[in-house]
Write a structure and sequence with these properties.
homodimer, 421 residues, alpha/beta, Aldehyde Dehydrogenase, Chain A, domain 1, Aldehyde Dehydrogenase, Chain A, domain 2, 2 domains, four-stranded parallel sheet, 16 strands, 20% strand
Chain lengths: 421, 421
């Protein structure tokens, strides 16, 4: 056996053990009272506050080793406090485990209930934001799910320090520390093993990070994945859009934060209103430093728009750039979105309720919006309290994934001796 | 190019075309009014009745070619009428498309609704029951989903004749005939291509058939699967079971129909009640021709029970055979079910409500039952009107899969100009 094989076998054994321990811990977390899960998350927050210095020391090691941008990686006292406060907020969310989602009686007297149950074991693969370690742990525990966390190597020391507080919180509440485990190595092969499901112990993978990571996960995973690859979101200014609303919403949808998945990347504008609507919208965006790339029709109306190439319509800029296209009406707007969109979030701005309802009904994106900013695509803004990510697939979870969407369900049938004829 | 390659390329082209046409048809089926889907299913029933002779002629060809058991394959006038009547029943079910499952208002005035949407394109792979062709078509159309049907070669002529009526019904209602397509060949490679997803056009695979088929599908599929591999169902006679109920329910759960997935395969019985409960239960089963295989404790109580081997506890007999085991109480019963069960349907018989509720809460099977027969595991019995199968996975669908579970959802956000702070 050469050295490389020996390392692989060690990693395999380590990862398999994580999976086996996760599966073991799942029953305790699933069957304990909701108050125990609440207490565990609150205790995590307390332990994290108490360990602020230790976490900052670990983060300093990560920062010293880091290359490139480090703002996402950097922690300070205020940020650690923010992470702990977020834990307390998740502790306050309703516990979905065991909730009756429906209950009905059959003519033969059988009483049937559909009851929420945890999915089981979640594999979370993310990059270098230390807060994700705590956020993901809390939302998984809130929904009764065990989680195996795999952070990017740049944040490993910070994540391990935060994980220490999480494990202490779980144990204080009388739960197995293995309800939340961290992959203790930066070896990239660990990701591949998680994507294979660790011998059937992982029920679903949640990737959170850049396009390269998510694409790899979606391509290689042998278990279900909750993820969005891209957010190519559209704001469609329909002929009867209110002019002030058109400017305010478009500017917010594009520029509030350009790097998030709910940011608008393409503006569609009805020909009938383009002459009056496009100049003020374009000027407002340009005034904030946004580059516009448009089709010939839009450039004929507003000369400072640069020419768009075919690739622009399917580009998630995540930057102060937006593409602009003039369309003939609802059908052409929907055709464009169906062809180039990513099924994430798309908005229509109009005072015409009938056209708006047609847009909302006909478009099959995870989130469809009328007269509001696409940047509302967020679990917090939806009232879910927290989200582990936003899903653009159609299976199981779609849109912001909060605690409720991290549950499955079972049927509870209560009888009085019924046999089937 | 040799002959084999040429055949493969033809099949590939045929299958890819099915996928592309399915995706094209999906928008029309998804966005038409519910009344159009209802009319289409009713028209399918009418066309099927009108084509009874043609269907029976096609079935006669299948029967003449068939080897082995043919009862599942055989059609007669009454059976064709039964299939048509079942179509009418699905037409009468509530249409789930566009149904608001939840709606709430945010403090900023945003009005958010969660609305049911079809999943998209379903790939249905089944064996030689001709009725499945019509049942699956109807339940998919009812839920707004396009379906690609792949029947076993033995039933291909019957299925194509039934499909003719389905296509005529769709067209009469003004929908594309491609909403329901059949794989027109018995080539087994077609199944492999469906399991790969036909270039991303298939959203979910539903296999329906024997263990070999379902195992292949679950192993090879690169898209989500709604399926159960096995139904190893348990009936647990707790110490405080009502004696008459114990006999009635156990006999029904095992013997009503032995070949269905909800049939009980193992009886667990509390030691405290085994002396009094086991003999009447065993005698009732033996009187109906059921073979009992038990552990040493059960055989000590009732001598005619044959010895069980380890393999018996994980065997889905689908036959008049049942395994029997004496347990010390709830914990040991749950341990046994967790170890050997398949997460399908498990029942407890007891007059002790506290023990029953603990069983219902702690066991994470798709269906958990108190004081009723495991054979109620059925979409019709649950009031779903129809089912496309029973799922034992935890993702998206679980238990009987009716029209509602063949939907996904999207969020509809209605605003009045809100921008995100």
């Amino acid at each position: 056996m050469n050295v490389r094989q020996s390392i692989d076998m060690d990693l395999r054994a380590t990862m398999d053990a994580l999976g086996a321990k996760a599966r073991e811990a799942a029953e305790a977390l699933r069957t304990c009272p909701a108050s125990t899960r609440t207490a565990a998350i609150q205790a995590m927050a307390r332990h994290l506050r108490a360990r602020t210095e230790e976490v900052l020391r670990a983060n300093a090691v990560d920062m010293a080793n880091a290359t490139g941008k480090t703002d996402r990686l950097m922690l300070n006292e205020a940020r650690v406090k923010g992470i702990a406060d977020a834990l307390d907020q998740v502790a306050d969310l309703p516990d979905p485990v065991g909730a009756e989602r429906a209950r009905w009686k059959r003519p033969n007297g059988l009483d049937i209930a559909r009851v929420s149950t945890p999915i089981g074991v979640i594999g979370m693969i993310y990059e270098s934001r230390p807060n994700v370690t705590a956020d993901a742990a809390a939302i998984c525990v809130r929904s009764g799910n065990v989680v195996i966390l795999r952070t990017g190597s740049e944040a490993l020391n910070s994540a391990l320090a935060i994980h220490g507080a999480i494990a202490a919180g779980l144990e204080e509440a009388g739960l197995p520390a293995e309800c939340v485990q961290m992959v203790p190595t930066a070896d990239r092969d660990a990701v591949g093993m998680m994507l294979e499901g660790l011998n059937g112990t992982i029920d679903v993978i949640v990737p959170r990070g850049g396009k390269t990571l998510v694409a790899r996960v979606q391509d290689e995973a042998r278990v279900p994945v909750f993820a969005h690859l891209e957010g190519i979101c559209h704001t469609y200014l329909q002929a009867r859009a209110d002019p002030k609303m058109a400017v305010d919403i478009t500017v917010n949808a594009k520029m509030r934060r350009v790097e998030i998945c709910g940011a608008t990347e393409t503006i569609l504008i009805d020909r009938a209103a383009a002459d009056s609507l496009l100049p003020p919208v374009a000027e407002a965006l340009e005034g904030m430093g946004c580059e516009l790339r448009g089709d010939a029709d839009s450039r004929a109306i507003h000369g400072s728009i640069k020419p768009a190439e075919e690739a622009d319509w399917s580009t998630e800029y995540l930057a102060p750039i937006v593409s602009v296209r003039v369309v003939e009406g609802l059908d052409e707007a929907l055709d464009h979105i169906n062809r180039y969109g990513s099924g994430h979030t798309d908005a229509i701005i109009t005072e015409d309720a009938a056209v708006a309802e047609a847009f909302l009904a006909r478009l099959d994106s995870a989130i469809v919006v009328w007269n509001a900013s696409t940047q509302f695509a967020d679990g917090g803004e939806f009232g879910f309290g927290a989200e582990i990510g936003i899903a653009t697939g159609k299976m199981h979870a779609r849109g912001p994934v909060g605690p409720e969407q991290l549950t499955s369900f079972k049927y509870v049938v209560r009888g009085t001796g019924q046999t089937r004829p």
